[in-house]
Amino acid sequence: MKREISMDTAELLYENWTGQFDTFSHMEFACAIPQSLFLISTLKEDGLTNLCFHSWSCFGGDEGGYFAVMQNVSHTSHTYENIVRDGEFCINFVSADYYPNCIATIVENSNTTDEFAVGHFTPEKSRRIRVPHVKEAFMSLECQLACNVDLSRKGLNSMIIGRVLHASIEEKYIEGVDLRYGKQGFMFNIHEPADYPTGRLEDTHVAALEVLGSYPEMKNKPMV
Questions:
Q1: Using an 8 Å Cβ cutoff, are 53 and 37 in contact?
Q2: Most buried residue, 21, 150, 153, 212, by most Cβ within 10 Å?
Q3: Residue 223's pLDDT is what?
Q4: 43 in the Ramachandran plot: left (φ > 0), alpha (ψ -120 to 50) or beta?
């Protein structure tokens, strides 16, 4: 038997904090679809570095370009302000070993805070944008703002689409799948999954991929 979940109400679910189902759709917790975690680096108006520990994203493109699509970028955040003002940002993928460092940039993130310093990250010069990479990241994507859309039209969050201008990947991470797709690779967000028997939202979980096998029959097959 399947549980039917309405888009209209957050029936039988309880918020962990007031306004949670305004900031995030209750479907976020009902579905709890894992998504990659990464750090968005930007520059504050005075030039100080800003870092945002973010998820809610996908990546893809065609011959016209490769794009980073980020949902739930809060209109009240430094990150949103910086991206709209400067038109550029960098996405940095770090392993779960750096989870405490990432959390530190959430705890202390005032206008006068150098967030690279707070998270004990090292800024590294980018090739195509002014915003620095995170040196500790195994992969960084330099992005130019391509689109800013308030999908819900509630004035709360935007979907930010960035055109990827340049990628930097640690050499040892491009040799096979072992590092990128294991505990030392991409980190994933399981955002407070709902426990429907109680209506409570569980803690957020951090996950990594486990490679189960390959699909050689898909090699060189065009998408139709």
A1: yes
A2: 21
A3: 63
A4: beta
Per-residue model confidence (pLDDT) at position 19? 87
Q: Which residues of the chain have pLDDT under 50?
A: none
pLDDT at residue number 139: 97
Total number of domains constituting the chain: 1
Rounded CA-CA distance 159/54 in Å is 13
User: Is 99:136 a contact under the CB 8 Å cutoff?
Assistant: no
Whether residue 192 lies inside any domain: the answer is yes
Decide if 70 is inside a domain. yes
Within-domain flag for 15: no
* Owning domain of residue 143: 32-218
- What pLDDT shows up at residue 7? 75
Q: Is the dihedral of CA 21, 29, 191, 75 positive or negative?
A: negative
The CATH number that applies at residue 203 is 2.30.110.10
Q: What is the CA radius of gyration of the chain?
A: 18
Would 19 be classed as within a structural domain? no
* 71-128 per-position pLDDT tens digit: 999 999 999 999 999 999 999 999 999 999 999 999 988 889 999 999 999 999 999 9
